Amino acid sequence: MSVAVGKDGPATPRPEGGSRVEDGDAPDGYENLTRIDQGGFAVVYRGRDTRFDRTVALKILRSDSLGERQLRRFRAECLAIGRVSSHPNIVTVYDAGTTAGRRPWLAMEYCSGGSLAHKLARVGPLPVAEVVFIGARLCGALGAAHGASILHRDVKPRNVLLTSYGEPALADFGIANVVAEDDNMTETAAYTVVHAAPEILEGKAGTAAADIYSLGSTLYTLLAGQAPFAREASTGLAPLVTRILRNDLPVIARHGVPPELEKLLRRSMSARPQDRPTSAELGASLTSLGQRLSAAENALPSTHEPPVPVASPVSARRLLVIVGGTVAALAAVLMAFMVWGLGSHRDEPRQSSSSASSAGTRQAAARYAPTGLAVARGRSGGELIVSWNMPIRPDVMATVIYQGPGTTRARAIFNYGTSPTTAPHVTMRGLPGGRMVCLCAAHVMSIDNKIITAMSRPVCAVPR
User: Could you tell me the pTM of the whole model?
Assistant: First the structure.
């Protein structure tokens, strides 16, 4: 199975009083727009709604090149969100439209408390009772959305805002999915890597169960101070292999986390979607747990224990030797891996037995380098079909296609676990027509319990 690669770039918080939107591209009826945040696909401004004299949050999508089909999808998403935004734990949407520069925008409730991601960065892991409270409220929000056949598709701490009354409120329902390049793109583009369910990383369509997985990952993050696989994913591909195939969720190394809560999170992040609870089931369990925690706290004298440092949830070195099966991953993790994997063997000293092992590994990797790489024009504009010879199986787990020199821009992944065993190929879409495009391939394999990559030479062609 070939999977196109996309990623949701990290949001960059902006201080109050930051840069202002260009006057010529501000929506009518809103003034004093000041940038307060930005993410992978939109910029958020605080502004004044002149018609109702109220402070609002104005989210303006970055893209000014959306086609008519995408604009229609954006309007449909806005209508769907409007049906559920009256829920107390969903950010209220007031208005929507497009700027003079054809940038879609949403006017929403201004949540003065900021996002949970910002709070986590400011104060560290949240109290257990607060996390349970937040989880129960968000289950109610997802339950309302799922009941209306609406998926969120990007549940994460940055998309949970705190209202002026201290209530958590989900934002950005389905909007990230609107900016995908075309209908042939995998829905993975709408998900943040570290909170995406395994089936999403394998290129399957989003479901309510995928939202539950992301909610479980979000609650884990609030408890542990970092996403379950954030540290391991930054070191390479092997931890992500473990995540998909083994579902090896790290233990929350923190004092005072009830075993029942950790069990709920593990169930919410089960590898199989059918093993996860529904939003109603998870919400009821969290509410019950919250009531018991509250009763226990009221029954005990007040104490102030010093905070316990949060340990690393799992050793990256240990995970690097856990390899098996096949993998489908995303560009953000693969690029980090390639830099690490290719650079870690270049400058090793030749004064120990490990250098001989490294040399042997390099020689073994050379045997697996992609051969027969060919690029042909596709039927449509901006398409190229990339093919190569079938590699040695089962050692080679996946093939990554890169655009341009080096490994800075991964565009697709071919997973041999679920793909045909003959004539491997992928179709690249959205390439610049009439301009030379160079592509190269890298086989990802396991040799002597190590993850190794072997690169091909680039091959160039001009799309229609």
Answer: 0.62
Rounded to whole angstroms, the Cα distance separating 119 from 60 reads 23
Give me the half-sphere count of Cα atoms (radius 13 Å) on the Cβ side of residue 273: 15
Q: How many whole angstroms separate alpha carbon 394 and alpha carbon 452?
A: 14
The CATH number for 345-461, chosen from 3.40.50.720, 1.20.140.150, 2.60.40.10, 3.10.310.30, is 2.60.40.10
DSSP-derived letter for residue 96 is: E
- CATH domain 23-109 topology: Phosphorylase Kinase; domain 1 (3.30.200)
Cβ-contact 58, 47 below 8 angstroms: yes
What is the model's pLDDT at position 191? 60
Residue written as token pair 């990559």: 453
Measure the CA–CA gap between 90 and 96, rounded to whole angstroms: 16
For the chain, the structural domain boundaries read: 23-109, 112-296, 345-461
Q: State how far the alpha carbon of 419 is from the alpha carbons of 46, 214, 298, 306, 423, in Å.
A: 48, 27, 57, 53, 10
Burial of 38 (0-12, 13-18, 19+ CB in 10 A): buried
* Mean pLDDT confidence for 65-84: 72
- pLDDT given for residue 340 in this prediction: 39
Residues designated as active site: 153
